[in-house]
Amino acid sequence: MYWAELLVAGLFVGAVYALYGLGITMVYKATRVPNFAHGAIGTVGAFVFYKTWKASQPRLQIKHLHFQIPFADSKAWWSHWDPTTPRLPLLLSLVLALAVSVVLGILIERLFMRYLVGAPTIGLIVATVGLFILITGLAIDFFNQQSETVPPIIREQRYTALGVHFFNSDVLVAVIALALALALGAFFRFTSLGIAIRATADSRETARLLGINANRVAQFSWAVGSALATLSAILIISRGNGSLDFTSLTLLILPGFAAAMFGGFISLVGTFVGGLTLGVAEALFVGIRWPDGFFREIFSSAGVPQFVSFMVVIIVLMTRPKFIFKGVRVDEDSGVGFGRASSGLQPEDRLRRALDRRGALMLLLKDWTTGRFALAGMVAVAALAVPIFTVSYWSTVLGAAVFYALIALSIVVLTGWTGQISLAALAFAGAGAFGSALLSTQAHLPPFVVLPLCGLIGVPLAVLIGVPALRLRGFFLALATLAFMVACESWLFTQPGLTTRNDVDRMFLRVDLSQPSYYLSLGFALLVFLGVRNLGKTKVARAFHAIRDSENTAVSMGIDPVKYKLLAFALSGFIAGIAGGSFGYMNLKVVSGSFTFFFSLTFITFAVIAGLGLQAGAFLVPILFVIVPTLTARTTTGTNQSLFILSGYLAVRATIDYPNGVAAFWSRLLRPFSPSERVAWTTDEAAGAPAPEAALASAEADEPELFAHAAEELETTHA
Amino acid sequence: MPNERRSRRRDAPLKAPTTDASDDGNSSADAGEPAPTAARVPVEANAARPERPYFEVAAVSLRFGGLQVLDDVHFHVQKGEIVGLIGPNGAGKTTLFDVISGFHQPNAGHIYFKGVDLVDERPYRRAWLGLGRTFQTARLFQNETVLDAVKTACHRRISGGAVKGLVTGMLGTAGSIKAELEVDRRARDIIDRLGLGDYAPKMCSELSYGTLRLTELATMLAMEPELVLLDEPSSGIAQRETEALGPLLLELREELGATFLLIEHDMPLIMGISDRIVALAAGHVLAEGAPEQIQDNAEVVEAYLGGRVDLEEVVA
Amino acid sequence: MTASERDDLLLDIRGLRASYGAVEVLRSIDFTVARGEIVALLGTNGAGKSTILRCISGLLRPDSGVISFDGRDVAGITTEETVQLGITQVPGGRGLLPNLTVEENLRMGAYPIRKDKKAVKAGYERVYETFPRLSERRRQLAGLMSGGEAQMLAIGRALMLQPKMMMIDELSLGLAPLIVQQLVQIVRDINASGVSMILVEQSANLALSITDHAYFIEKGQIRFDGSSKELLERDDLLRSVFLAAAH
Predict the structure, then answer these.
(1) Which one of A358, A382, B183, C207 is separated from A450 by 20 to 30 angstroms, measured CA to CA?
(2) CA distance to partner chain C, nearest, from residue B164 (Å)
(3) A671 domain residue, yes or no
(4) B255 → chain A, closest CA residue
(5) Domain C1-86+167-247 adopts which CATH fold?
(6) Same domain, A133 and A227
(7) What is the percent of chain A where pLDDT is above 90?
(8) Which of A57-61, A147-151, A321-325 has the highest mean pLDDT?
(9) Residues of chain A neighbouring C98 (CB-CB closer than 8 A)
(10) How do the domains of chain B map onto residue ranges?
(11) Domain, as residue range, for A220
């Protein structure tokens, strides 16, 4: 009876996963976009529903909305509007919520995703994570952040059958999930539009040749996917403890994706079965009564279900059973690229042209050679002097900046350089941070020994997830590392062995002041940055780049992909481990809540905005996302979410227009001048807007002696 | 001229595979490679040529699902030769290249290079054994500069494994810096000699096709392979440039002292520079011989032009 | 047909230029199809044959040039519109939708007229009558069919709409001679029913024996064109294109 209870409980949890996974499958199937914003879209719909449903309104603490224009003066009368929400019957507010989410889905496709067709996987991931941040930011401003408690949509009742207890709300979720899976399955099988969606997924080009409007098909999929998100969010919140907030649905990202994975991101019924399978596997594993000893110890903490989903994801992705992966599109390339979606002159080209017209470009480029040293000097002085002359608060801020810089560097090395999409940077950092606690308090090692050791702790963890990475690319690799990150956050970092020994001993660095710890972290960060800078000029970095751009070409040049991929993971783990160590010394107490998978996801978007492929990008991350927000925090007018809204929006825009981020903009703006540029500028103005490359290429084509000249040259210089 | 060279090669006794591999001695790590035993060589090949040729594709077959992509492909290449591989679309030429470079594992057969069976070697090891290749769609490294692409091709020239490279590289040891300077000098030299100097700092994604092809050839020079596989070097480039490509390839061969195996659709080019032609159709070798012989071979002509349809018969 | 008989033009392309990114693939192409005619488009790999089709169908926006179909300028319009104008295509290579069944593939062929149930039904009947074999396999996944069946399905799918012009990209590629003969017969029948055609082919002899007019394209330019019957007699010309000798 014990196992039967568990089984049933697992099935009902699994139904929730399935419900969430259906929407993910829906969007991925049609557009190949892994939608990390699914939960956010659903939460918006759920807010609309519960804020307008008359049965839930009496319990709400905040009964009005709060429209406000980001970055506009919050005191100005025109910049905000606070209406009270209407009181509607259940069905009407459900329709309203679904309508809002459908509009949201259509907007997402029309404004952003349309321009990302054919974008590399990293772009799709970052764009949807950016959407998550953007939507959540806007929605918090609309609905207020306050977590509300709402009543269930049906009166809860407990039933008993065959000695197993269950609630009617559980049954409702399971039945709706099954019904949706079957209905959508039928839709894709029997209706023209459904078949057209499958056709577009099979081959966009062939579908277009048949007269199918691929954009409209994608729009429809986003609309339905968003409606599904809302429906599942309402049900999940109702079935749970009725807590309406912006974080609880985020936690379903991994199980949702895992359920969809069982359907190969294609089959809706497969997604449903996958959700149940995962739920049952978790419930049964949690239910095991381990004998006293090691296993009992490690499997008694809270995050065991997350550990199970990690194992399930890894096993399925590594073995790729035929019955799931038949007809599934597996990424052939790394999924990391910096190609632009839009052609024509880029913003920096236009800026250069404008500067050139005013005769300023040459001056700027000339001054920049000295200017860069001046700028670097100013940054260095600020980093060194500010903590001395200010309150301890600023060294905490700068300490965070160091942490951000190192994490970003670890992402640049692994993802930007080597093309291995990893969402687990904070897992390595967390390991380093807990390591700093253990090594300083338990082993009584001095800080300057502990920090490099923290790096070494990150290495095996990174290599561990690097091994499956040898078989996985692109989206599946991202999924595997996401599962790993979630398992670390929820299970590994909550182990009693760690949480009871999580204080960091600063020893001779003064306990009451954070400045000495900051200088220590800064010193190590400088060393790491210098080391990576040196490495950037060597064959190792070139091998990394080669694997990212074309593994086959790399291999044909004699580069061993296995060795270099693992090496990239190891180096990335080392850097993140040191970051974690410095985090420990800055914060004195290490908790799993500092190393969440969502923070890790956010970091990828930070890195992409700043410049994923360039070391300078890692340098810019703390400036853009720590220093600037801190400096503007007090002076920013507008909503409290303005910065999130902006960075979410920037992340999506960056993937469309600027896949290599601010750093690339900067370096391309200040690159040496070449005369062919002026040709491109003028052709751009003359003939609408052909791609500048085409203009340059046609200039080159007037050079037919290319090969003849090369042959001649070879002959004369022949050794 | 090609004829003369060919016959000379054929008469000259070839070195035994083992000695060949060891006294070539470029790829340090392979000293211990055991010579393949005679038992693994197909009997008829063994009987016909007791000495194994420099490079041999021996009875290679490959299936994709239900499709026989390569069917008992068999041919050889002598040292120093330029052998052209032709055949209509879908004949399996590029697939054969992929098998040779290790991206597909054949269902049957062997590929011998200097006496070593390449099928047993991991793909990247084949580069260390002296194999170099270009790809049909010259993508090279989209996000790298021309200079870096050529330097990447010098990978084999810097000694030391990956881990050692990482540590010395990060520390910036004198040895590492010196080796990098050497590679940099060498890469720039190659780029200058091919007249690519102006393009060195450009991204590969910004290049025209012709320039990209030339960059690819520069990476070949940098790799210093002994056997070069070229997959349609003329594809995507203008006619006038194609005409200049033949002499360039011959020059390249001279410079490298390498053996060439190339796929090409441009008939004047491939017929002009190849010593021998191997014609593939539907996954098997249709004919093999001098360019003139191939051009007159009825089967090859038919494979290209297709059989005539007897209209009377069809309509009836 | 002589040049003067080719006056009633269905498709008229003048000065077509197109490129993929930096690579210019078509350099000023002039190309016409008269009403009721089958025109062959011949040339080696990468010559630009498929690119011409892509420009006509609207998949690729030409850099410059005029494409007029049935008296209307169609350069740069969307694929949906070209399909609605009556241009259908049998795509080369993996042009099927492999994870859809045979019947679903056909249904997608009728996507623009999906509301008109009667016309769709007539389409099925027409196709199944032409290709009885497809009728037997209507529930089979398209990806699991043999090469000949796949080609039949691709042609059948293009027939669902009763097009004015059908473009076939590689009719005979990788198919057994017997099947090619069957397909040729069907292509001629379709043409006889009033559908103009463009046939892209590797096999020059095959193409010349079933078409009225032929264009030879090389490196993005038309090298020569002429009546198929006359060209068929000029063996030397064909060889110069496909097996050109250096001597």
Answers:
(1) A382
(2) 40
(3) no
(4) A718
(5) Rossmann fold (3.40.50)
(6) yes
(7) 33
(8) A147-151
(9) 202, 327
(10) 2-130+228-315, 136-224
(11) 2-64+84-252+264-287
Judged by CB atoms closer than 8 Å, whether chains meet at A209 and C24 is answered as no
Model pLDDT for residues A445-504, shown as the tens digit of each residue: 888 888 999 999 999 999 999 998 888 888 899 999 999 999 999 899 888 888 888 887
Domain B2-130+228-315 fold: Rossmann fold (3.40.50)
Contact across the interface for A708 and B248, Cβ inside 8 Å: yes
Cβ–Cβ < 8 Å for A103, A97: no
Please check whether residues A581 and A705 belong to one and the same domain: no
Number of domains chain A contains: 3
What would the mean pLDDT of B19-39 be, rounded to a whole number? 37
Partners of C91 on chain A (C-beta within 8 Å) are 205-206, 209
Render the burial of B117-134: b for 16+ CB within 10 Å, e for the rest: bbbebebbbbbbbbbbbb
Q: Cite the beta strand spans of chain C per DSSP E.
A: 9-20, 23-34, 38-42, 64-69, 72-73, 87-90, 165-169, 196-201, 213-218, 221-227
> What value does the mean pLDDT take over residues B104-123?
91
- Residues 206-245, chain C: which have Cβ within 8 Å of B? 206-207, 209-210, 218-219, 238-239, 242-245
Chain B CB contacts of A549 under 8 Å are 139-144
Pairwise CB contact (< 8 Å): C247 & B268: no
Residues in B touching C245 (Cβ below 8 Å): 267-268, 271, 291-292, 295
Nearest CA in chain A to B177: A538
Residue B266 distance to chain A (closest CA, Å): 16
Lowest-confidence pick of A123-137, A584-598, B121-135, B231-245? B231-245
Same domain, A570 and A691: no
Q: Which residue has the tokens 């001095």?
A: A446
Selecting from C21, C59, C114 the residue whose C-beta is nearest the C-beta of A209 gives C59
Do both A586 and A688 map to the same domain? no
**How many CB atoms are located within 10 Å of the residue A564 CB?**
23
Interchain proximity C181–B314, CB inside 8 Å: yes
Band the pLDDT of C198: cuts 50, 70, 90: very high
Question: Would you tell me how many other CB atoms lie within 10 Å of the CB of residue B43?
Answer: 9
Domain coordinates in residue numbering, chain C: 1-86+167-247, 94-162
A40 belongs to a structural domain? yes
Q: Provide the 10 A C-beta neighbour count for residue C51.
A: 22
Considering only the beta carbons, identify the residue of A539, A552, A709 that sits closest to B165: A539
Contact list in B for residue C185 (CB cut-off 8 A) is: 314-315
In chain A, residues with a C-beta closer than 8 Å to the C-beta of C112 are 211
Does residue C149 surpass a pLDDT of 80?
A: yes
Buried b (16+ CB within 10 A) or exposed e, A391-409: eeebbbbbbbbbbbbbbbb
Instruction: Note whether A45 and A161 are same-domain residues.
Output: yes
> Residue B122: its pLDDT value, please?
92
Contact C137, C104 (CB under 8 A): no
Is A565 within 8 Å of A395 (Cβ atoms)? no
Tell which residue, A620, A606, A715, has the closest CA to residue A663: A620
Which range among A19-23, A466-470, B3-7, C120-124 shows the weakest confidence by mean pLDDT?
A: B3-7
> Rounded distance, CA B130 to CA B135, Å?
17
Contacts of C204 in chain B (CB under 8 A): 305-306
Cβ pair A535:B166 closer than 8 A: yes
Place of tokens 């919050």: A74
Binary contact (C22, B209; C-beta < 8 A): yes
Helices A361-389 and A347-357, axial angle in degrees (round to 10): 110
pLDDT at B43 over 60: no
* Average pLDDT, rounded, for chain A: 85
- Beta carbons of C21 and A694 less than 8 Å apart: yes
Query: Cα separation of A442 and B286, whole Å?
Result: 74
